[in-house]
Q: What sequence folds into this?
């Protein structure tokens, strides 16, 4: 991959970005896209908040509260009833 070194002003502008942006020239022509580097922890945090905000967390919690709970012995009994693999 080719690298392009950003000057101080461009580096400061890019460092403040949190999402993908279009880079354009002075005439408004598209040069390309810039995607800020994101850590794995940031990605997981973003997904967790998206799930929570979308109501996914509440939906899963309500679903699990209504589910019948099985003991380990019950699960093992069911698996044995399926026969050998």
A:
């Amino acid at each position: 991959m080719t690298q392009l070194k950003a000057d101080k002003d461009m580096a400061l502008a890019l460092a403040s970005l949190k999402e993908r942006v279009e880079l354009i020239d002075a005439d408004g022509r598209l040069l390309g896209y810039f995607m800020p580097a994101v850590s794995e922890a940031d990605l997981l945090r973003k997904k967790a908040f998206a799930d929570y905000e979308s109501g996914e967390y509440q939906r899963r919690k309500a679903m699990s509260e209504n589910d019948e709970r099985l003991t380990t012995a019950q699960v093992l009994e069911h698996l044995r009833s399926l026969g050998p693999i």
